[in-house]
């Protein structure tokens, strides 16, 4: 039995409609992501230009703060792996995570900065009470593709404050890390961050891509329908 014209176009039409809804949904979702990312970038820009405030019990992410205490370098850990260009060429290194013990309040984990794996000079580890200026970095959770941490060796690849704290014997730290900010003199390590993070914002290009594909699908389907109706 020869299919009717209506049944002949039913499956292609439904398929095209389903694909169109998916593409429009992806584009709309990226619009929400765009507004979310713009909010984060605005928050970071405000914190970048503002002076540091004393660290409170529940600081907002990426707030610029200062905290005073004593470093426990005997409990130091390492986080991540990063290659940097130096006058001697590319060098692999890691970040030093050290608990800062404060009187009357829980200790916090401080990312003091990048240190090269092979170095000729000792680390700049101050003794006594210090004041650290930095920004609040929320903790991460490990993904299925994350490199495995070495808790016994205090080498971590996921910035999970709880996991790091348990490994070094400081179980009551807050769920964030204070990333130290400051100038980084040559050949003095750890080298702290010189600015707040600037996450990429590619969501507008994704919006254009998904909506552009949706428009292209409509054009292709209309052209196909016009040719099919002539047959």
Structural features:
alpha/beta; 3 helices
Overview of the structural elements:
By secondary structure, this protein is α/β, with parallel strands linked by helices. Helices cover 35% and strands 27% of the residues. The protein has a 5-stranded mixed β-barrel. Helix 1 (5-49) packs antiparallel against helix 3.
| SS summary, helix count | 3
Order of helices and strands: HEEEEEEEHEH
Strand tally = 8
Mean pLDDT across all amino acids? 89
Span of the ends, CA to CA: 18 Å
Strand percentage lies at 25-35%
Radius of gyration: 26 Å
Percent of residues in helical segments?
A: 25-40%
Major beta sheet summary: 5 strands, mixed, barrel
Shape: elongated
Unreliable runs? none
Q: Tell me the structural class.
A: alpha/beta
Q: What strand line-up does the widest sheet have? A: 2-4-5-8-6
What's a concise summary of this model?
35% of the residues lie in helices and 27% in strands. The protein has 231 residues and is of the alpha/beta class.
Mind sketching the topology for me?
Blueprint (H helix, E strand, L loop, with lengths): L4 H45 L3 E2 L9 E8 L5 E10 L2 E14 L2 E12 L12 E10 L16 E2 L4 H8 L7 E5 L22 H28 L1
Parallel strand pairs: 1-2, 3-7, 5-8
Antiparallel strand pairs: 2-4, 2-6, 3-4, 4-5, 6-8
Helix pairs in contact: 1-3
């Amino acid at each position: 039995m020869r299919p009717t014209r209506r049944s002949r176009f039913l499956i292609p039409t439904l398929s095209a409609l389903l694909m169109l809804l998916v593409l429009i949904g992806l584009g709309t979702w990226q619009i929400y992501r765009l507004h979310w990312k713009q909010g984060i970038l605005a928050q970071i820009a405000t914190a970048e230009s503002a002076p540091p405030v004393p660290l409170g019990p529940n600081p907002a992410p990426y707030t610029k703060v200062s905290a005073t205490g004593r470093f426990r370098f005997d409990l130091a850990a390492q986080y991540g792996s990063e290659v940097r260009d130096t006058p001697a060429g590319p060098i692999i290194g890691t970040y030093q995570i050290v608990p800062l013990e404060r009187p009357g309040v829980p200790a916090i984990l401080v990312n003091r900065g990048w240190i090269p794996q092979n170095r000729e000079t000792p680390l700049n580890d101050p003794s006594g009470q210090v004041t650290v200026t930095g920004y609040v970095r929320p903790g991460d959770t490990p993904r299925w593709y994350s490199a495995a941490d070495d808790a016994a060796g205090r080498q971590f690849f996921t910035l999970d404050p709880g996991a790091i704290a348990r490994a070094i014997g400081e179980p009551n730290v807050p769920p964030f890390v204070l990333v130290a900010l400051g100038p980084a003199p040559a050949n003095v390590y750890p080298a702290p961050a010189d600015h707040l993070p600037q996450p990429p914002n590619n969501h507008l290009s994704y919006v254009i891509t998904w909506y552009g594909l949706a428009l292209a699908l409509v054009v292709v389907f209309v052209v196909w329908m016009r040719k099919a109706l002539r047959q």
